[in-house]
Amino acid sequence: MKIHLKSFTKQGLFYLLMVLTELIAGCKDIPDTKIETGPIAPEDVIATFDLEPGFKIELVASEPLVSDPVDMEIDEYGRMYVVEMHGYPLDKTGIGKIKMLSDVNGDGRMDKSAVFADQLILPFGIMRWKKGLLVADAPNMIYFEDTDGDSRADIRDTLLTGFAFSNAQMNAGNPIYGLDNWIYLTSESGGTYQIYKKEFGDLGSDIFFPGKPGTTRIPLENTGRTVRFRPDRHQLELTSGVTQFGHDFDVWGHHLLGDNSNHIYHEVMAAPYLKRNPDLLISTSTQTLTDHGSEVFSITRNPERQILSAEGVFTSACGNTAYTGGAFPAPFNENSTFVAEPVSNLVHVDGIKNKGASFVASRIGRERKEFLSSTDSWFRPVNMYVGPDGALYVVDYYRQIIEHPEWMSEEAIQAGGLYNGKDKGRIYRITPTSAPTAAWTKGLHLGDASNEALVKELANRNRWWRLHAQRLLVDRADQQVIPALVQMAKNPASAQGRLHALWTLEGMGVLTAEMIKMALQDAIAGIRENGIKLAELHISSSPELESALLHLHNDVDPKVRFQLLCTIGFFDTKETAGVRDKLLFENLQDNWVQIAALSAASSQTNSLLEVVIARYNPEQLAYASLVQRLASMIGSSGGIENIRHLIQNAAVANPEKVTWQPALLEGLSEGLIRRKNASSEFNQQQAILIKAYFEHSSPSVRKAALQLLKVIGLQDRSLTKAALKKALSAVQNRNLPDEQRVEAINFLSAANPVAHVEMLKKLIIPQEHSSVQLAALHTLSLIPENVVNQYVLQQWPVLTPEVKDAGINTFLTSPERVSILLDAIESGKIQKASINFLQGVQLMTQGDDKLRKRARSIFAHNDEQKVHKEYQKALQLQGNSVKGKIVFTQNCALCHQFKGENGNSFGPDLGTVSKWQPEGIMANILAPNLSIAANYELWVVELTSGESIQGIITSETPAAIQLKNVGGVEKMIPRSDIKSLNTLNISAMPAGLEKSISHQDMADLLAFLRQNN
Predict the structure, then answer these.
(1) How far is 540 from 95, CA to CA, in rounded Å?
(2) What confidence tier does 308 reach under pLDDT thresholds 50, 70, 90?
(3) Is residue 219 scored above 90 in pLDDT?
(4) Which of 206, 229, 340, 693 is least surrounded by CB atoms within 10 angstroms?
């Protein structure tokens, strides 16, 4: 007899759907089982795209003319050059090429191809320069030129060498001609490989101009950052930021970067400003811009993702491209930035808005949709290019697999497919729907234009024309064009014309101080900002520019004021110090303003700290960060007596000082870590800090005092013994506030906690506040042996989710501990679903070969394929989402909603399941014990009153847990009322559902749950 799903009890179906959603927080445990679809022919691929309304997409080039494209360039004659990287991922035989494509019949689609250059290993970027092309092919930057007009390069000259040779995305690539006439090149340090370390673990050497002795060399240890160079002048420098494949500049020259998971960030502080004050310690020179996290919305059918590719978020962001073509409709025409996400088969777009010294990036376009996405899992956009027609060209690598085998499971590697699609590749053109066919394919004549004509192009609304014109004018260096450039620099009709004219004059070496003064007074903030940068280059030869610069201290634009702070940091005069302090205190809330002000020479650090403390405003958090930074600088290189005085001042009990004392102590801790003799120089301060730790009224001061004690060390045995006795008494006194007990536990971590193992263990129980448990767990983990790991395994059934997560982290600190964790997972003591995504990534990227293979065999294992093989027939049936909705409404809505509607929000919203593959959903229905994720485990709580309660822990605080039962009723349970707490390491959903549901019922349910996939 056929039994429909609606006959299943509501309570049973609640548990069914609870299991379906167990992996929402950890979807790594559902590897994507695919039905192979294979590549789609070029003429059919357009139908797979979902593009932002108002735009159209057309195919410009495809196989067999081009394959494996990763970058492109259109030169001043309308010739399209494409980089073909055939060797990825493992072929080092030199099969990479540069192709020159032509449109013979003038229909806008390429129909002829010629090999311009070959015998390249993993070419990864191209740029027009002089009469040829610069090509990045690690470890080299190579110049190619065709001198005889046969469309094939006959000059091959290595301009730079020494770059690391590693994973392609980290190799030198993406050369870009900057507004300032420098060429910018992405470059990261090598050494990320473990499995393929021999083949791709070349760390590089010093980066230098070969055959040019006496020119600049960048030492090996400093090569993990973006590089800029000027080949004709043999100038070579590091920038302050680091990026993977893909970077660009906005119209005013701000450098926008990205990497796999952080799709857009801004290099705020340039390298010269950070180098001048080594005592200023900052962790990054860049600012993450996104205000919407890393979520992406893929529409891919049968996605091809590997073990380290997360679903629904950026994991392979690349090809960052600022749109500067001037042809798109609002809001895409100005201040928009595109980024490719090849793993998820889409192109994302953000709108960039000013925010202080940096920016904020926000989604633009349709809600919960990307600018361009495809249902085709082989669509691999890796780069973009803004052409002379203002179109956005999308470079599609078109491969089945995009991940490197270093980060794939052994099973997937053995299955083959690493080079599937090697003979394919596409380039698309995106324009407004009303745009005509590209005219540039019939040829351009910018390269033959007169100097006067090139000057006019500096005002073109499309940056492609502006930059090529600027480059050609700088190359020609014709002094006769100077009057025309000066005139363009005064052009009131075009801010971009004025900007590019100024930098062209600079590139030619003929920019005057008068022209710079004019730029400093321009009505457009972006030109004033660039005027400051130009003044910085000329201040030594034109000292009168200092006065002109200082007049900008009241500028209305925050980026102008920020650049002024950066530039005047090179001057050490009373006037510049006054402007610095004024700008600092007027813009104190901007973190980058603080950094810029403090990047100046540290000779005035002490006096500035006194001013800041005198003006301290506790209602403005920025004052605390400023005190901390100044104290860190003093702690690093300040005088010993001065530092001792500051410690005394910061540790004394004084209500008037407590507002700034914690920041001062924290800063000194950061600075003293960098001193070689901190322990001996400041041993006398141990008693002061211990007294502050136990007696100061401020918790923040007590915490900071302990932090500094750990740096200085507990060397006075009598003091230490007395302090430990006091701390132990506090730990064991449950009448004390949690905060005080946690502080006492933390004090034990400053000494050797071995003697207190048994006491610490007794604190890791459900009855203790979670903050106490976590502090005890942390202190226990500091013991070199594996005591903490054995105890975590012993207590695992009674640890709440928060403590379990912290417990897992204690295993990740050494290979021996990792091995213990893998043993526990393999034996079933710990379910692999209890490991969050980042923890799983750390396990699967272990340096130890055996541990890495064990971890990957666990997390890449496709268990669902083994579940009810005969039931796979349901996956071949056509499901009816309308019927599925009825099933959901009648049986599931009691506990769940679907995308915020049609039900109650007791359990998780099942709308997120739509991104799963049907195999994964069905497997977890039919085999509920396949994966029980943390946060959705069923718990049994026995109270001191004798009552027993079952449910799911929805939240926990230090003092209580929140339990939700099957009926949706929530109850807050104080930890003091808990007698015992245990998790059931099985699913609450009954197994054997296949006996109650037909294949067609399953197909209908899956169709409803995946209806928007």
Answers:
(1) 50
(2) low
(3) no
(4) 206
Residue keyed to tokens 């340090």: 189
Angle between helices 463-476 and 495-508 (to 10 degrees): 20
| Coil, helix or strand at residue 410 | helix
d(CA 916, CA 158): 48
- Look at strands 346-355 and 336-341 and give their pairing: antiparallel
Q: What Cα–Cα distance (Å) separates residue 651 from each residue in 566, 637, 694?
A: 34, 21, 11
Indicate the SS3 state at residue 649.
helix
- Strand, coil or helix: 586: helix
Range in 93-97, 641-645, 797-801, 869-873 the model is least confident about: 869-873
Residue 329, phi then psi, degrees to nearest 5: -75, 160
End-to-end CA distance of the chain: 33
- Please name the residue ranges forming H helices in 327-396: none
Cβ count near 352 (within 10 Å): 22
Amino acid at 284: T
Tokens at 533, concatenated: 């940068």
Decide the pairing of beta strands 155-161 and 140-145: antiparallel
Confidence at 603, pLDDT banded by 50, 70, 90: low
* Residues 821, 792 contacting (CB under 8 angstroms): no
- Distance, CA of 172 to CA of 186 (rounded, Å): 5
DSSP states along 248-288? EE-TT--EEE--SS---EEE-S-HHHHHT-TT---S-SEEE
- Between helix 513-520 and helix 495-508 the angle, nearest 10°, is 150
Question: What CA–CA distance (Å, rounded) separates 592 from 564?
Answer: 12
| Sequence-separated (6 or more) residues with CB below 8 Å from residue 856 | 307, 409, 410, 844
Of the candidates 262, 268, 392, 260, the one whose C-alpha atom is nearest the C-alpha of residue 338 is: 392
578-615 core/surface letters (b: 16 or more CB in 10 A; e: else): ebbbebbbebbebbbbbbbbbbbebeebbebbeebbee
Sole residue written with tokens 């002000």: 597
d(CA 425, CA 55): 22
* CA pair distance 162, 180, nearest whole angstrom: 25
Query: Among 333, 319, 321, 320, which residue's Cα sits nearest to residue 435?
Result: 333
Question: Residue 54: which region, alpha, beta or left (left: phi > 0; alpha: psi -120 to 50)?
Answer: left
Q: Which two tokens stand for residue 698?
A: 């401020």
Rounded Cα distance between 768 and 388, Å, is 67
Cα separation, 737 vs 435, whole angstroms: 70
Q: Is 366 left (phi over 0), alpha (psi -120 to 50) or beta?
A: beta
Contact at 8 Å (CB) between 776 and 763?
Answer: yes
Residue 761 main-chain phi, psi, to 5 deg: -60, -40
Residues 37 and 23: their CA atoms lie apart, in Å, by 26
Inter-residue contact 897 to 904 (CB < 8 Å): yes
Tell me which of 241-245, 661-665, 766-770, 970-974 is least confident: 970-974
Q: What is the pLDDT of residues 357-367, one digit of tens each?
A: 999 999 999 99
Span of 131-140, 179-188, 350-359, 680-689 with lowest mean pLDDT: 680-689
CA neighbor of 447 nearest in space, from 473, 424, 427:
473
pTM: 0.83
Contact call for residues 184 and 171 (beta carbons, < 8 A): no
Q: Quick one: which of 489, 525, 529, 492 has its CA closest to 506?
A: 489
Dump pLDDT digits (tens) for 355-406: 999 999 999 999 999 999 999 999 999 999 999 999 999 999 999 999 888 8
C-alpha to C-alpha distances, 525 to 347, 962, 1008, nearest whole angstrom? 31, 54, 53
